[in-house]
Amino acid sequence: MKAQSKQNGKMLVIDGGFSPAYQKTTGLAGYTLLYNSFGLQLVSHQPFTSTEDAITQETDILSTRQVIETETERKLVRNTDIGKELLQQVDELKCLLSAYRQGLIKEQH
């Protein structure tokens, strides 16, 4: 598997990892690329040994995060397309409430 992302002249390539063939070379069980309001992070995962080890030795998959890029200003819901739609719905509901309070809309029973 190969994932690529290019933005603002930067390219990230994540190649393989979950395949046992790659695990022998890298020692890792894969990567996850995360993007959230804090920024861009690369998470590497250690291999899962076995269900028996997880139960008897209480082991889990160890994941390590590396911050690649930090957002200087966090992105908020209102800054997204869905956030803009939600703000529009809020405005519409405020107009509806105002019309109701002015008696322009009557309650139905």
UniProtKB/TrEMBL annotation:
Keywords tagged on the record: Hydrolase, Manganese
EC number, as in UniProt: 3.1.3.11
Pfam family, one: FBPase_2
One biological process term in Gene Ontology: gluconeogenesis
GO molecular function: fructose 1,6-bisphosphate 1-phosphatase activity
Enzyme class name: hydrolase
Top-rank taxon, per record: Bacteria
InterPro entries (alphabetical): FBPtase_class3
Official protein name in the record: Fructose-1,6-bisphosphatase
